[in-house]
Amino acid sequence: MRFYYTIFIGLLLSVSGYSQTVTELVMPKFTQGSNAGTTARVPFICRLKIDGLQINKTYRYFARFIDANSSATATGEGNFIAIKPATGEFKRFTSPNVAIATQCGDFTTDAAGTYIGWFACDAGTSATFTPGNNLFIRLSLNNGANGLTVTTRLNTTSPINVIDFGTTGTDGTALRSTPAAGGSAKNFILLYDDVAATRPVTATVTESDGLSITSAGYASFYVSDVENIDKVWGTIIPNNLTQGIQKIVQVGLDGVDVAGRTSSNGQWPASGGGTVSTISTNGGVSNVIVLDGNVVTLAPGAPVKLNQQITFNNPLISTYGDNDFDAAATASSGLTVAYASSNPSVATIVNGHFIHIVGAGTADITASQSGDDNYGAAADVIKQLTVNKADLTITAVDKFWRQGTAMPLLTVTYGGFKNNDDENSLNPKPQLTTTATASSPVGPYDINVNGAGSPNYNFIYIKGKLSVIGNKQSQTITFNALPTKTYGDADFNPGATASSTFAVYYTSSDLTVATIVNNTIHIVGPGTTTITAKQDGDQSTFDPASDVIQTLNVRKAPLQITAVDKTRLIGQPNPALTISYAGFVKNESSQDLLIPPTISTSADIGSPAGNYVITVKDATSNNYDITFVNGTLFILSLPPQQITFQSLPVMKYGDADFKPAASASSGLTVSYTSSNPAVATVIGDSIHITGAGTTVITAAQAGDLQSAPATPVDRTLTVLKGVLNIRPDNKSKNEGAENPAFTIMYTGFAKNEDASALTTLPTVTTMATTLSVAGSYPLIAQGATSNNYTIQYQNGVLTILPAQGDVQDNVNAYTSAPGLLQVNVYSVNDVKSAIQLFDVNGTRLVNTAVSLRKGFNTFRVAVGNIASGIYNLRVAGSGLMLKTKVVIH
């Protein structure tokens, strides 16, 4: 096979770039892509011929994808895979550049300025690779003289359609081989959808190619089951192949075919046994089609084929006149079994697999299966068919012979002829004899019948009666033609009458068609029988009447077999297919059919929504005229569902996890996502608050086999800051000492947090210094910040004890404001006292009663009416006397 010659002649596609041309020798129809974020890459391989270059020159180059909108100078998109012409070395570049020798490929032209070689790349992550787009290959070349810029751009013109892995008809399915016997690393695998190998569907490389693509966004199956595994290859095929992959070819680096394998029905030997179809696939990237590399060898020579066996168990015993029947042999491959008869005078094969009885006897029926692209021929199985003779009843018709007249003509009736046979089918015909003669006295005499011959019938002879009668009165029978009846009709009176008025009785020549019950005709089965009306006369008045016969035709009853319409949702297995029957009579059912009907549909679990025919066929019956009515399998799109999601309550940082309580009309579980994890995250079916702020909570329901995905519903969640109280711890020191280290007490932290959760820690300040006198001073906290807390401050107290400490009473005083004297008293005990002010003459100017508490006490005494000067201050109480001088100004 030289597939590229065919393509070259039929698809001579060249595009000029200056005086250069590029010709497509191997150009696959499809490549993988999935818009932005491609993470399921597979290689794309093509083979091109470039003419019009400088002779014997080495060019730097790279190959990438473009689309119809790409500019004339665009470098293309996707990743370039360089293939060394001589060694087959593979290198992959995400940003190729001819200015850097290690960032591009190179090739050398021949004496005609031509280069033929393999080119490879894979998908990028831009919208260029949106499924459905058509792409092309652009070759970017330098000047062939170590130039550092692209000087020539050559484009291919056959569109390359982008597909991605998925389960719909417009998607693609992963396909790979186990290690292929006869495969060679760095050879190329071309897959075609026609036996003629017109244009590849896709192309790939046999591993190991030396590349490491584990972190390059390649398809999961490729990374785990193809990459760097010797003689394994993998690719993507479109799901809409109506004929499947029909040819797989291994081609060497030199472009010469190594070997190919054909499957005209799109079925290929599967890993694990049997075959797998590549027609109308729907596996996506998860349900990978895996071919058996030990059978799909791609090695030169005759292909390896699977074995198959024929099972032919049914006993082949029939009777002349039986309906055609199915030989019912099967092949383990599932392929159709063919039949042949060794004796066409006994049986022939009709409609492929039905045995048609021709005559009694024996014949060898040979079941054979010649194999196909995947299976070798099965061993023939031979079974002997025995066709027994049918029973034919020959009845001598009763006659009357009046004395003195000529003997009546003796006749017979037949019951049981098959296949439209009649008396002329017998050789010889039956002979009739009787012992009665012209001189025989009145009375009955036997009419004997025998001597008939046929290879297809066993004869049952029934004697008749020849009644020799005297000269009595004659009588006649009136017997009108019988109406055509249908199998299942009720018994009926034939309606014959005798002129003697004597009762008429009846006989039937074929008891398989009709019998006589209580002098009425009882329908037994379809066919034709002769009904004879008789009247035997009596002893004295009437001679027997001449028999009168009428033909009774019984047609088959109409039976309608209907495939019952069924309905299911897309993606579900087919429901059980059922059949309804209309027309059974005599309390019969489908159990009374010779061959039961079969029922089937072409739809499977991967079929898209639509209407599919349910076919019912193959039933046969001796008693029914069967009409088949096909049904319809309605595959419906998944019903929609809606999400009910009420507005969310305003929450506060530190609140416990809560359930959003969205629900889906389908009853399926709703899932949630948060747009801002810094505010809230989702844990199971609950919202976990992580910070103050706002976030959008999205409720979603992805659907299942019963329901389509619901439209997501967004709700805004507002989380308020928590309240954090900050208060400096109370502290104390002795007068003149350095301020102690200040500490802070926090109230309101949530989630077991502490001060480390603050963005900025608070600071504590006070106006007290080493020079401050004994007394109480506020400690002020400020400056803390937090994203999650509203901060409230409370002051603490710094207590400055007298220099001697807290074991001795002490007093100091000073004018804190005009006309106001501040008196600070440290008391060791609680005591009632008085603040007294004396001038230098000892005159008491102030006497204010106070109650001292243990510790610091501060009092403000009005002295506005006292002149400026130096005064003596005294605090006196029980066991207490403190004195100091004070300046009033």
UniProtKB/TrEMBL annotation:
Residues 421-440 are annotated as: Disordered. Signal peptide: none annotated. It holds the Pfam family MBG_2. Residues 425-440 have a biased composition (Polar residues). Residues 392-467, 559-633, 724-799 form the MBG domain. Coiled coil: none annotated. Gene3D superfamilies: 2.60.40.1080, 3.30.160.710. It comes from the Bacteria. This is MBG domain-containing protein. It comes from Niastella yeongjuensis.
